[in-house]
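Hello, quick one for you while I still have it in my head. A protein chain has come my way and I'm curious about its shape. I'm sending you its amino acid sequence along with the backbone structure tokens. I'd be grateful if you could look everything over and explain what you see. Here's the protein in full, and shout if anything looks odd to you:
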Amino acid sequence: MKRLNQFLTLPLLGLTFFTAACDQPVEVETPVRPVYTYTVPPIKGALQRSFSGQLYASQGVALAFEVGGRVVELSAAQGRRFEAGAVLARVDETDFLTRLNDAKAVHAQATQELRREQRLFETDNASQSQLDAALSKSQSSRASLDLATKQFELCTLKMPYAGVIAAVEIDAQQVVSAGQAAIRIQGEGPMEFQFGVPSNVVAQVEAGRELQVLISDAGLGEFPAQVKKVAPVSEQNTTYKVTAVLTRADPRLRSGMDGEAVLDLPNAKGAYLSVPLSCVLGGVDDQRSVWIVTADASGATATVARRPVALGALLADGHVAVLDGLSAGEQVLSRGVHHVEAGMRVRIQGQ
């Protein structure tokens, strides 16, 4: 019986040890979340502001025929370049040519009559009044000839200076009226960019200030520019018109293209730091904050902590000015700001 009790006791002891081992908590390692950070750059003393505007050609005009008629020749085409003096279009000149030939004939006859009267006057065979009448007739015919010549030349529309055709507003065989806009041209002078600035900024935008003009059409990118002039009065009591000249030419630029003028303006509140808007979290009572990422001693991981910040203006590059709460060189979380918690260990994946 004693031997039987020994055999029963051994399995019970083993079961006791097994149960005790199972009751001990098993530590599960929390996975370290990979994150992306942004290193706060050195302090700035200017705010970057952007203003919408449009491109305009500094040399540009709408050409029109000064005489009416049917368009019999049209060589102008949108986007095509022409040298100064090139023929762009021509209206039917038949009637004007007839008038010109008639005026030439009348003037030639009047000139011959004047010469004859001069010879007769020199030999005392014509009076002074006869000579004066012949001279007056010759001068009148000369004026008529000049007018007929000019009207004939006005049948042809020519390029006033080298440039590109911006728009053609007439068709071949169309009957046009005198003064009707026919062809719009863009010269090869520097392009200008016009934009408006509010009254609280206009004093900081003076002639000669450098800026960047961003043209997004066709991916043209940024162009350096310089402020040419600032309107002395506001338009509709809201904004002041500013004209800037692009200092780099590009044949792809066209009047009417939309863009953004980007200027670095003095900050009335002093120097500031900036971070991407994606780094900022909202909060109670509109309290903004960011996640500060502090590397651990090993450098392999880091810890996040939430910190309130005071924000300034929204900048042109998608950043926001930070007036208080950050220091240059600190790292802040730049992505997934809503997927971390205070004290969480993370691994910096990149910037």
